[in-house]
Amino acid sequence: MGGNEVRFLDAVGLLLRYSMIETEQGSKGGYSMHPVVHQWASYLDGQRQEDEWARLALAVVGQSVPEGKTREYWVVQRKLIPHAEMVRRWIQKAVSRWYIGDELMIDSLHMLGILYASQGKLPEAEAMYKRALEGNEKALGQDHTSTLITVNNLGNLYKNQGKLPEAEAMYKRALEGNEKAIGQDHTSTLSMVNNLGILYADQGKPPEAEEMYKRALKGYEKALGQDHTSTLNTVNNLGSLYADQGKLSEAEAMYKRALEGNEKALGQDHTSTLITVNNLGSLYADQGKLSEAEAMFKRALEGKEKALRRDHTSTLNTVKNLGILYADQGKLPEAEAMYKRALEGYEKVLGLTHPNTHDVTRNL
User: pTM of this prediction?
Assistant: First the structure.
């Protein structure tokens, strides 16, 4: 057991003994803060004890964030958001950078970034990642693997915000550092290779994207096997690339492999499964199979609204796709309703200048 985990469990034990947190029913390792503690912590505003309680709360919330590759992770994540908001406000009000030099605190900040990013709260995620990056660079150095993981996740965030040059700089820094530190074939390195592939595809560089995807896929299949979720994620990405290139039969084979594998590994309602369902819908639309496309989009939308939120960017992507499909079917009122919903959501979450916002505006 690592030092961070020991300190976390010690903190949890103390808080449980004094009934300041409660274990989450049906969640392994999940905790929630007692409502009275929320109120009391607010009362402590400006007092010396606040920083110490902020440390404990940050550890409990940050270390309770589940990985996205677990079944129904979004259920726990949604429960954690109100507690994360309380912790975030404490952190932002603090005058001192009390988390600098404390690996548990820095890791917990990074996990809060993951939580916010998964829930589509991108400004909040960016704030947490930047604090974690600052802490890791000072405590561990710019080339430490923990630092590079945060750099990579900042790249993901910038890509989702449409800041592609900034994303590329983060990805390349993370990849170069990881290749030196742990080798070209390590799964963490391969994750960064896959992310660069996604970025190149978004930049309209299909040859570079395919090279990255195939390198990642070969490495994942060797290290983790053909049915691992990381492998299947890259399979899905290759499917998207082939679809963009008009290689529809190759794309369909990739999507179906990814869908079957994710349904077995993660379940029918997991967000990774639903992303592939959405992609299959787009493929069927391109093939002129409009009824099959509609079934896929509706399944994806219903699942994403349940697992994420109505205004999550992934949900909005499916809303936009349904709008395009309805327009192709001549269902113009339904198409307009979908476009307006997508536009309102994109403007709120991504801003007026994001490419997704522009795409929907053109369709309207």
Answer: 0.81
